[in-house]
Write a structure and sequence with these properties.
coiled coil, DUF6694, Lipoprotein, 7 strands, alpha+beta, 273 residues, Immunoglobulin-like, 7 helices, three-stranded antiparallel β-sheet
Length: 273
């Protein structure tokens, strides 16, 4: 029985004595030599894991701002990074370095995830608001449209006039309308005129009401100066409506394809895993 216990103790000491090599950071030369010794003891796959883990651990505390860099100088900054990195890997085995790198990566991922979830929330709200605004703006029905230009008695420039008829199918009174007017000939990619315009409506348009307004765009803008080809048609897209209090009721929100792709990428990486 005693012999069996003694044998176990001897084996335990043997295992401890022949344990995995550790990184010696007492000097640069010893650190380099001990790291090389560890690499030689590893398989090709694990050696790659160890090398990658070393980089992660050594640079995990690098968070110097410009003020610190200017204060320390280039050499001082490099020395600070080096000393902090050595402290993080000192006396560690390959497995311990790999495990530490894993913990660091997990921490970084969680921090990134927290920020990503905040960005996802903002993008989701932006998308939802864009959809709501688009549906609300569809309730403003554009009726008869007229665009004409007349000779000006006191100028060589033509005097443009827009007559626009709108019906308000929303449940709110509308005081101001923002729109994009386009004059284009079918079959031609580039319009003759494409301009933003907005106008106040005297007395507003109450829910269910129809209004016809006559507008006089600036004669020096493309409304008055552009050459317009034959068979051109005039269309108007409503992009924003304001209420009686001056606040926006609905507006085309810029939720672009880029925004949508960003949202999907974030959800794939941090939610749909």
């Amino acid at each position: 029985m005693f012999k069996r216990i003694l044998a176990s103790i001897v084996i335990a000491f043997f295992i401890i004595g022949c344990g995995s090599p550790r990184i010696d950071t007492s000097s640069d030369e010893k650190m380099k030599a001990s790291i090389e010794e560890i690499k030689k003891s590893l398989s090709d796959e694990k050696r790659k894991d160890f090398e990658d883990a070393l980089k992660v651990v050594i640079f995990s505390n690098v968070a110097l701002d410009f003020k610190s860099i200017f204060a320390l100088g280039a050499e001082g900054t490099a020395q600070k990074i080096k000393e902090e990195g050595k402290a993080l890997i000192s006396n560690k085995t390959a497995d311990e370095v790999i495990l530490e790198a894993k913990k660091i990566k997990e921490k970084i991922f969680e921090e990134e995830k927290k920020k990503a979830l905040e960005e996802i929330k903002v993008l989701e709200e932006k998308k939802e608001q864009a959809q709501k605004s688009a549906e609300e703006l569809k309730k403003i029905v554009v009726g008869d449209l007229t665009f004409n230009r007349e000779k000006n008695q006191y100028s060589s420039y033509l005097k443009p006039t827009i007559i626009i008829n709108l019906k308000n199918n929303t449940d709110k009174a509308i005081a101001r309308v923002y729109a994009v007017g386009t004059i284009k000939t079918e079959g031609r990619e580039v319009p003759w005129i494409k301009e933003d315009f907005n106008y106040m409506i005297d007395g507003g348009i109450e829910p269910g009401e129809t209004n016809t307004s006559s507008l006089s765009p600036n004669m020096f803008s493309s409304w008055g100066t552009a050459n317009i080809g034959e068979n051109a048609t005039f269309t108007v897209k409503i992009v924003r409506i304001d209420g009686a209090d001056g606040n926006i009721i609905a507006s085309i929100q810029e939720f672009s394809e880029k925004d949508n792709q960003r949202l999907e990428d974030l959800k794939t990486k941090y939610i749909n895993k």
